[in-house]
Amino acid sequence: MRTPAQNGELALLLEVASTPKPGNVDRHRDLDDLRFEHFLAGAVGARDGLEMAATDSAIGPAFERAIEGMAAQEGDNTQFGALLLLVPLVRATRNDLSRSAVESVVEQTTVDDAAAFYRAFEHVDVFVPDPPADMAPLDVRRGSDAIPALEARELTLVDVMDRSVPGDDVAREWITGFERSFAAADRLETKSGPLPDRAAAVFLSLLADRPDTLVANRRDETTAREVSQRAAALVDRNAIATDRDAVETFATELVDRGINPGTTADITAAGLFIALERDTVEI
Amino acid sequence: MRTPAQNGELALLLEVASTPKPGNVDRHRDLDDLRFEHFLAGAVGARDGLEMAATDSAIGPAFERAIEGMAAQEGDNTQFGALLLLVPLVRATRNDLSRSAVESVVEQTTVDDAAAFYRAFEHVDVFVPDPPADMAPLDVRRGSDAIPALEARELTLVDVMDRSVPGDDVAREWITGFERSFAAADRLETKSGPLPDRAAAVFLSLLADRPDTLVANRRDETTAREVSQRAAALVDRNAIATDRDAVETFATELVDRGINPGTTADITAAGLFIALERDTVEI
Q1: Which residues of B are less than 8 Å from A282 in CB distance?
Q2: What InterPro entries does the record tag this protein with (chains A, B) (predicted)?
């Protein structure tokens, strides 16, 4: 029987091992400067923060610790978004792991949690788009320099997430009761076969559902929509079962074009965690 | 900066991610009933035992805990031998991680440590050959039923290892001051490129040096020698750099024939740990 922190770490490892996961690092693909082993080290490093999330520690410091540990490898940012989902989910296991339990966790976050979230950006280089003008003092790239503005406006961590929606589908999970994370877990449970294969199929289905917000922010919305529509076409004809080569080709094409649907991978990791915790998937 | 327990877990993950690793599960190959994800879960589960090894816990109970955690996945035995090397190595980091430090660790093991080692076999199905007749009461497959015989003969854990040599090259590490584990670390440090690629090259060189004892025990010595000679031929012509296809073909052939040089993989993991601890390899 694994602990929630162990399941959190294992979810990160299973996510990166799942293949084909178009555009992302997976068991069969590296990016130029972000390799499979960076994700392995990132997951190992994140565990202490996940252990904190399972205890009485506040959510913000647990997240900051997870990011600091994750970033102790040369690939820099490997699992920032995934940990932003896993930390409240791990905490929610202290009751039952339900959507209402994790909603309650995020609703109880404080201004101090938000400050720790901002400090986390000092440990790692995360891609974020320019904020609107009135939010410039709260640009996460300012790190702890933004904390006074945060305190002046009395923004808690869930308030910060609320202001990142629409545009960031990791933040959207925080204000929708982790809707897509739980949907991903449900899908993992209804599929058969080895868990990484199921996770790859769920990744593709999530990508088909909604354009990936990291792609939209790094590239543009047109590209994000194109990628989502192509994933939907593959899902519609059940390509993973009937034409796996087409999915592999799509995966390699996105890597070659430098298009990385990282938000979709984050939600896949969250879904893996929920399914592991429910003990409804075997490994 | 990773802790010794984190480096121990990471060494297990990097070992299984290294490819091509002829005959074994690697980033690109699964066996029929032992898949990549089982090794991921095995590494996550082993961490608590590695944490114990880094503290005041006795070596035997730390090993038993590591095995119990490792075995909490459907592949059953994934990293038994590797953990038998990692646990004393993790303990040795409390001084400097040298051959004499780890020799001192194993020399201090007790009959109670040996009893815990026997109990570990109750958590997992490890392949071991039949012992000689006078050692039958101490057959590890008897698990804790063998403990009275162990106590009657006042055998410590290093005594048990001593009686497994020759024939088991994991046990041999215990009585040679971890000779090949440190040699593996030295080789990792002199190579260049991503760490998993280096580890695959070191694995092949270790296999070339000596026939794998797991292959000898599971199959026969002739097969073990043949595999080692073929590895040596590949190393002699620097095939990893000049004819990688030949190494990949050898890797797949051994998987197809069900020949798994697991002892060589165990020593590779130990070498990875030592190199990570010395901080002479980057990840």
Answers
A1: 74
A2: CitG
Q: What is the mean pLDDT of residues B14-26?
A: 97
Residue-level pLDDT at B132: 80
B190 Cβ contact list (under 8 Å, min separation 6): none
Letter string b/e over residues A10-37, b meaning 16 or more CB atoms within 10 A of that residue's CB: bbbbbbbbbbbbbbbbbbbbbeeebbbb
If you average pLDDT over residues A69-87, what whole number do you get?
95
The Cα–Cα gap between A92 and A115 comes to: 21
Q: Which of B31, B248, B283 to mutate to test the interface with A (most CBs of A within 10 A)?
A: B283
Q: Chain A residues contacting B, CB < 8 Å?
A: 1-2, 6, 9-10, 13-14, 17, 27-28, 35-38, 40-41, 44-45, 47, 72-74, 194-196, 282-283
DSSP assignment letter at A171 = H
Q: Is the dihedral of CA A24, A27, A31, A33 positive or negative?
A: positive
Peptide bond into B20 cis (omega under 30): yes
**CATH architecture, domain defined by B4-196+265-278:** Orthogonal Bundle (1.10)
- Test mutation, A2, A14, A40, A198, chain B, max B CBs within 10 A: A40
Q: Is the pLDDT of residue A131 over 90?
A: no
Class of the domain covering A4-278: mainly alpha
Is A74's CB within 8 Å of B196's CB? no
State the DSSP string of B124-152. Answer: S----PPPPGGGGGG-GGGGGGGHHHHHH
